[in-house]
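During the no-cost extension, the postdoctoral fellow (Dr. R.K.) reprocessed legacy sequence entries with the updated structure-token encoder. One reprocessed record is reproduced below for audit purposes.
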Amino acid sequence: MKIIDVQVIVLKSPESYGASTRGEEVRGIKYLGIVKVQTDAGISGYADLETQPHVAKAIVEAPSEGSVSGFFGLRSILLGEDPFEVERLWHKMYMGSVYYGRRGAVMQVISGIDIALWDILGKAVRQPVFKLLGGGYRDKVMAYASTLFRSTPEGMADASRWYLEQGYKAVKFGWGVFGEDPERDVELVLAARKALGDRTELLIDSGWYVHRTAKEAIQMVKRLEQFRPFLIEEPLPPEDYEGYAQLSGAVDTLIACGEQEATEWGFNTLIERAQIDVVQPDLSRCGGFTAGRKIVHMAELHNRLCIPHSWTSDLLTAASLHLNAFMRRAVFQEFNVTSGPLSRDLCVNPLQLEDGMLRIPQGPGLGVEVNEATIEKYRVA
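Re-encoded structure tokens follow.
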């Protein structure tokens, strides 16, 4: 089997991202990139990209610079290659783009291509990806509703009750107005905790884009610890490794980070230098399954929790479920609750919550079928 084409397809939603009061009114992403890797055996692999899709398309389609290593477009690196050699192809893409990549958008595209290659592998041997990774420890994972902070306590309570009505047993509120006013932050989290009750897990994404020193982050976490959050995510910039170490050592609440991080080297730094409690690899950013399984092993070696970040669509959520199946201990699966078509309509059979859980797809590859009609309807490039 040989790779005959690699594409990035750009989709555009008619809606704009944002949140209002009720949970069902959270709108999804505006643009989304889809990676499609085709083979001469008629098998194609898919993945979605959590990066700027027009930039991703340029990275894939860029011409090679002859024999000059480090300046190749990713399609030219992969044409004619055997998709089964995922480890070698990961390294080939990394080195072939090293002078304009290494991290950022290039690594995010490498991640998507890697996921698509594993999808091809599973389809070729008629096995789900988690079995190719090394085994499945479970067939379902608890989902948490991943949503935005509302601007008022009433809005927080209303949204919390709506997610409970949908069957969620865990909810994460993030970004939005959080961080603008410390007193309001407390009021918003208090409202969520009261509405969710004591038996529903509350997670908080405090937003690294809010500028805080390590001591300010410590004060923020301590203000919220009375509400028993399961974790507080990214209260500092992703690169503030010393600040995270200071924060983690000063509070009881679990500190999480990693959606902005990439490669096993980056996560080794988060664990050993930043001393975080929970790593959050995003398969569409960290390096795909090839890097993701190394990160899982690293977290297990250092006795840290691993909760995959997953935002875009059911396609990425399905991939993340396979990673969760592969872990010896899985805690949560992040579930994007937005209503936009690029989030909800990308797969023929959207993932469904069952008693607060998401089932691990059991079909070949990622185990979900891409909805070609949705791609054609919203395709702009």
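The longest strand covers residues 3-12. The mean pLDDT is 95. The remaining legacy entries will be reprocessed before the final report is submitted.
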